[in-house]
Amino acid sequence: MASIIFLDSPACSGFSYARDPKGCDVGDYSSSLQVQRFLNKWFTDHPQYLSNPFYLGGESYAGKVIPLMAQYISQGTEKRDQPLINLKGYLIGNPVADPKFDTNFRVEGAHGFGIVSDQIYEAAMKNCKGNYVIPQNQLCAEVLETVDSLISEIADGHVLYKKCDFTTPKPIDDATRRKFLLEESIEPNDAPGRPTVDCFTYGYYLAYFWMNNKMTRDALGIKWGTVGEWVRCNKEFPYTHDMPSSILYHLNLTTRGYRALVYSGDHDLLVPQLSTQAWIRSLNFSIIDDWRAWHLDGQAAGFTVAYANNLTFATVKVILYSSLDHLFLSTELFCGSCNRAHNRLFVQGGGHTAPEYQPEESFAMARRWLDNEPL
């Protein structure tokens, strides 16, 4: 389907590094320029790929800066800078865009999911008058505190899943498992807190050990001594959120002919699909193909709408699987208690971010869109 470059950005995230420590101190604009410079150098070294249609893609907060990166690349092409990257468009999932949309619709989304009652939602509407970002009065502040407290009870990345350890670092409590998993590995300072095996975030826990394994680093070509301990979420990263909104860049790019696929897991409350739909509507594009289901294997895999200027929005929806379809979700199947597990259904669906929860559906969506086929 495509040749893919996975880039750890900004510098000093993941396995990327900077020779000068100041190179790690970046923000939205400076890190996007870093990406443009990287791509210019990469295509200079690999000119055989210049004729390929090129797309940018990112999830969550990366979805906010992807349009900025695309803007920089587009401007370079217009100036006839070398190399001429054949940019065609971009894909963004569960994307952060603008707090006046992203934050505002968390309240409405929580109400829609049944986390917030009608009375609380009505009080929020009455006292906050549509502004849930910065409370303008004490009553608004109080009701928003109540909303936040209720949302804190659930996993807002996917409201149907268990609330589990996510990124909080603390020492691992199983010395034997630690020794086994860390053979030939970088010795950690603090392994992440271990969620139970039936938690979705258990994969994040295992990823920590896999990424710090010497064989993994050798396979990825990580230069020895550049990055010590790999951590999934670095809370002390010196990053400046200096771009207030990405919506103008979406407008600039799509009206100039670049294609855009914007998609959302429909049970994400971190960046609700309601907020994404709202900022897309603010562009005032006419609808080309009205809201409809898109399908995979005869089932609705989500819903989609196509706008003028080659902008497509899609949701990735919840699907129910039997326990035998997805054995890894049932700890009981590993201890012989299969009779009880046979009668269970496990919920999967679009969360934050959609491809993590629904990889097959997300892959089909991306492939069709890249091939210029209807979803």
Automatic annotation (TrEMBL):
This is Carboxypeptidase. Pfam families: Peptidase_S10. GO terms for molecular function: serine-type carboxypeptidase activity. Its EC number is 3.4.16.-. Belongs to the peptidase S10 family. It comes from Triticum aestivum (Wheat). Keywords: Carboxypeptidase, Hydrolase, Protease. GO terms for biological process: proteolysis. The keyword Lyase does not apply.
